[in-house]
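User: Can you fold this complex?
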Amino acid sequence: DAGVIQSPRHEVTEMGQEVTLRCKPISGHNSLFWYRQTMMRGLELLIYFNNNVPIDDSGMPEDRFSAKMPNASFSTLKIQPSEPRDSAVYFCASSLAGTAEEEQYFGPGTRLTVT
Amino acid sequence: GEDVEQSLFLSVREGDSSVINCTYTDSSSTYLYWYKQEPGAGLQLLTYIFSNMDMKQDQRLTVLLNKKDKHLSLRIADTQTGDSAIYFCARGGYNKLIFGAGTRLAVHP
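Assistant: Here's the predicted assembly.
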């Protein structure tokens, strides 16, 4: 299994530009999570989906952030417009909800730098 | 994670045991987890413990759970340089995980 796939691995953009991060979960998993990691704030859950439906988006910082999951094998996290404080590593994770262990499998992350 | 707390740093000598501690406030979780993050990588599940267990051992790893005190610990025996990483404690809750801030373990010769 290829694991959770994220693209791009690195993104450098200028303030004000739109950024789109992509994630392909593990085949068969029905839950998908977007996290943001910074030195200051640690690991934050932004949003998660169950069966392609957003369940909890309370962690999304503001309206500039949006996430979609059009089908079971693809999700995007969009930031428009981007700001320097959005610089972070963004992780996508997937799991099989309803299993006892609730193990989440993380992707390698996208390192975003906004200048 | 607002209700999962860990110390931020731990430094140990190679060959010694490492003990990473975690406290949590919500005791409703069925499972508690330890994840490991190596530099430049995502988190990987290291081990987990069912909430009605006191201890779980897996090779060099020992997890201790004190439900009364809401305290979880991870002991790594014979710590190696390859164990240098950030270790996250997490509790399960309603299909999502609540993570602590992570403990950075540094192993020195």
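The interface with chain B takes residues 4, 31, 33, 42-43, 45, 48, 50, 55-56, 91, 93, 95, 97, 100-109 of chain A (CB under 8 Å). The mean pLDDT of chain A is 93.
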